[in-house]
Structures
1.
Amino acid sequence: MIQQTNYQQLLKNLEYLKLKQMITHLDEVVDFSVHNQLSFIDTLIKLTNYEIDLREQNMIHAMVKVGAFPNLKELKDFDFDFQSSINPQQIHDFTTLRFIESSENIVFLGPSGVGKTHLASAIGIAAAKKRTSTYFVKCHDLIQNLKKARLENRLESRLKHYTKYKLLIIDEIGYLPIDPEDSKLFFQLIDIRYEKRSTIFTTNVNFKSWDEVFQEPKLANAILDSILHHATVVTIVGNSYRLKNHLAPEGE
Ligand code: ADP
Ligand code: MG
């Protein structure tokens, strides 16, 4: 009877402390502990680990959500055999986040459908899972956002906002031309992150044609200079994965 009262008291305490996982796993851990003659400390470790595991999972989930990734494709979902111009080792190394430690950039360059967005977000998700603040944005949306901020006289705070992310992913540079005024905004962002923060870029436009994207050669040069100064460029050649099933098998 006393046993049961104590047990109920313990449940009440755990409830009061909002330790839901410990409540859920209490019986199981007590049984395990008795059966295996665990020490008091080991039993407590086992019980508290359930609470910690869930909080870790929630934290990871929240970090990934904040990242605003277009989808949750990860490196394990990438078929390296299909895209033989990519060195899997190099991509796996990116997920160790060594490049973030040294504030380096990554540029994925290649035609449509070869996996640039997939790889960039996979690295971003890996970073978010390791609690590195990460944000994914399409270049066009980023510029619209900065323009709006400038109109509303809050450009500086918006730029600061984008600087706080340890990893920023700017997707699809060059899909739409950017007028010189907007190119300046883009440069301001690149400049403020330069040598402080890592950025991953994806583009389908060769660097020598960035003049046409930013429509102002001096700015295009300055942007390229800052991006490429400390960057690894991953050039992907090959077929679009989207067309994979429509292409003749090799050797035919
Ligand atoms: P890009 O950004 O280069 O245009 P995406 O990354 O959007 O291409 O890839 C197009 C689609 O094909 C996505 O759904 C992506 O997940 C998939 N994909 C591309 N390459 C591969 C690959 N090698 N293995 C698995 N899926 C791939
Ligand atoms: Mg893409």
2.
Amino acid sequence: MTSRMLPTTKRLIDGLFNGSSSAVARTSLARSITLVESTLQRDREQAELLLDHVLEQRKAKHEGHTGDSSFRVGIAGPPGAGKSTFIETLGLSLTKKGHKVAVLAIDPSSSVTGGSILGDKTRMTYLANCPDAYVRPSPTRGTLGGVAQHTNEIVLLCEACGYDIILVESVGLGQSEIIIDDTVDTVMLLVPPAGGDELQGSKKGIMEIADVVVVNKADGELKSAAKHTAVDYMHALQLARRKEPEWKPTVKMCSAREGEGIDGVWDVLTEFRDTMNAVNKIEGKRSRQSSKWMWNQLNEELMSLAKKNRFVKDEASSLAPDLAHGFISPRSAARKLLEDFLTHPRNK
Ligand code: GDP
């Protein structure tokens, strides 16, 4: 790897630290995110240098301080629950209180379905036009490990740029819950009013990782259905295994469209943060996440080196007939490939 930072990367860094409200900082942030997500070797090297620099600055800033002033909140829930509407209402209310809010989206399911639910349409127009908010137009996509890795890096870039609240919306289906829990400090599940019997099975996975459940659309004709749903979730959460001994998952109701109950939801989220911070659990969670991403990254890089290695490829081809006939087990074949890779780690 070359270790020279290009002048373009240097300019991105200068731009990032220019204060989040400036147009230069926003453009630099958007370009830095593109760089971090690029798969080109040259970009990957520059991305690594950029992130290292960002982390050095972070270290210098936090020298002597414990904890971190940023708060990363994950928002999951089925399509149509009102996540975008909620984030826009919450985001605007937070900027009015003096916060700088960044909104990211992740969509790990799109690597399977090939498309994104959101596409690249402009999202949350009011919030996106607010000088104290940054709304990333397209979701981070890719493999499970890749999405978590990139999202974490993008979070660091946003924080370097001065955003203190990071809202990560999970727009994909399926595995997104796991990813989101690996990326943020707290997970909020947003659900629409629904019949009680729908709760149990389908949402079990996400219920296990939710710190706060919010029933949205508690307005007009839907209000009483929302109340029933909230009670159902309270019962379900009482039966569920607790994620943290210090925290009893809470159920709230709101109307994102009317802007009602949003402050109450935010109060519970910050209460969670304060409770967890008091026992250093946010720091602990972040450090576990970093360690997990490190191993993920190593895993991905080793696999990509092994698959490109000429000796490994040759051995795989010569083993193919025996493997196809069942004369050698996949387990021993894999071991042979590993031995080849360890003997010839580099292509000559
Ligand atoms: P997402 O797919 O979870 O991001 O959901 P959206 O934010 O796009 O909202 C889906 C639909 O629900 C839209 O038609 C919204 O106008 C509507 N919606 C969102 N929040 C509320 C709410 O608080 N009350 C009502 N009645 N409708 C809402």
